Structure of POU domain protein:
Amino acid sequence: GMPGSDVCSTASHTAHAAAHMSAINHMQHHHHPQSMNMHPHGLGSHSSLGTSGGDAEPDPRELESFAERFKQRRIKLGVTQADVGAALANLKIPGVGCLSQSTICRFESLTLSHNNMVALKPILEAWLEEAERAQREKMSKPEIFNGGDKKRKRTSIAAPEKRSLEAYFAVQPRPSSEKIAAIAEKLDLKKNVVRVWFCNQRQKQKR
DNA sequence: ATGCATGAGCA
DNA sequence: GCTCATGCATA
């Protein structure tokens, strides 16, 4: 079973009509390890050289300071990360829907890939401006919420097993399918769980 | 805030 | 079957 292809609907409240979006996503173009390249696909890093009133700053410091400023302003507005994610859909930016609390959190803590950060920055920047404008004119929103009973189960890998996985990862971060199967059996875990664990470990390590 | 998971796109 | 962006569930 594979639940939800749900897109919006965030944790706390602020639920609204959902739509299919996702345009910020899937901008990968990997051909070499450790190096990705943004592709002007509509979002984020357009290829403007940017001296003419655009954005696009290859400055990592600017990203960092923006993330920090963003969080600070967001909190002053009394808005949660989940609220921001859901509100993005209201910006009506072509190809931009909502984002999850997780993503907003990761943006603020700079725990997304550089490309992802660069792509999201203009969007969150737009939200921030809109939110501050809205606050100026005292806007209020209705508060409805949806009831959904589609749960998903999250596997929890016990500490001992996790330690083993980390040990394996240290010597071979990219085990073969067979090796993964062997590890899975030794640790009494589903092979897929082990495979995904390695994937996530690599992604995390890259960050 | 973070762990485990999904899915698109590519090789 | 990986990477990458992203999300649900949960610590």
Q: What stands out?
A: The helical segments of chain A are 60-76, 81-87, 101-108, 114-136, 159-171, 177-187, 191-206. DSSP finds seven helices and no strands in chain A. Residues 2-5, 22, 25-26, 28-31, 101-102, 105-106, 109, 111, 152, 154-157, 192-193, 196-197, 199-200, 204 of chain A lie near DNA strand B (CB under 10 Å from a C1'). The longest helix of chain A spans residues 114-136.
